[in-house]
């Protein structure tokens, strides 16, 4: 039996780094301190055993060798005019680097899962910047914490305990008793149930509510009507008083803000509110990133191409224009004629029309797990699990990079090996 202490969890953007992993032989038998979500991934489920291809006319899978699956993937990519390489969020930065090289090699479009979650946040940050901090600063200092359109109880179960609500820090030694918690959401979530103040925003009205808060904050409460977006003026004024009274405030926002009406303009407006609150006291804002290394893809893609996601290499140079070059733009226009989905699940998270188009084109899935994308895939290549069987770097939701150690030995080739072999094969087929 072996015990690994201070291990990192490869599931959500909290990237908790205090797990104790107990192994026996080459098997994990316990993941102490992990939440249910993290433990389910670490303990293992629904692994794909061997590469598969749909070879018969009924479309059934047949097990094939890695060699055959890699050859077929390279052939699909070389024959495609608009290949889409999508996913990446549940893989390490070392995988992203290889993937961007392959996208450039085949003149494809590379995009990650932020496309359907925090992509709009990136656009807002382009325009406004991001007054932010580390999670450590929030743990040690925050006395007012706002969750807007995010529900950490369900999606980031240890966020509140480790960083934002219950955690005791250097200047916040009272933990929960020393913090005001505010939740703004369209429905009363489990997180709202433990808040001091719950703001029930009418669906699609976040932009209006944030604008009303900004008006009140800047001394123009007189122009605000009796209710805005389902929130009474009285409650809005009370909320501004709480926000202004903070010594250090933090706003965490989720998909309830990024994917509701207004999208990136909601984030733009929220960032403006934070800038204005900084005229009174100290405030920071942070996206609640979902997958454990979705932030890392943005980092690697930015330093490799100059853009954080949705990069089109068809011109021979990186070109970026979300609305035109994001994964769903291509699929909804039926422009992508092949797709490689890696470390992300387009089948589960894309709109129905995008998935319908995926079902009509050749799709390669590279992933340790069987998931809805497998159902539309023509070629499936199982890989080792990043962060459990493969070491490497990932970026926490606050942009802090952390090094994952291997917990057990891999039983499958790594994503890096598979991408390298596909790239080599692409070069061979083209006769480079
Ligand atoms: S909160 Fe997230 S990172 Fe932490 S143990 Fe749970 S799933 Fe893993």
TrEMBL record:
Keyword Oxidoreductase attributed: yes
A Pfam family annotated for this UniProt entry: Molybdopterin
Presence of the UniProt keyword Protein transport in the record: no
Keywords, in A-Z order: Oxidoreductase
Top enzyme class: oxidoreductase
Listed EC numbers: 1.2.99.5
Name the record gives this protein: Tungsten-containing formylmethanofuran dehydrogenase 2 subunit B
Organism: Candidatus Methanoperedens nitratireducens
Organismal lineage: Archaea, Methanobacteriati, Methanobacteriota, Stenosarchaea group, Methanomicrobia
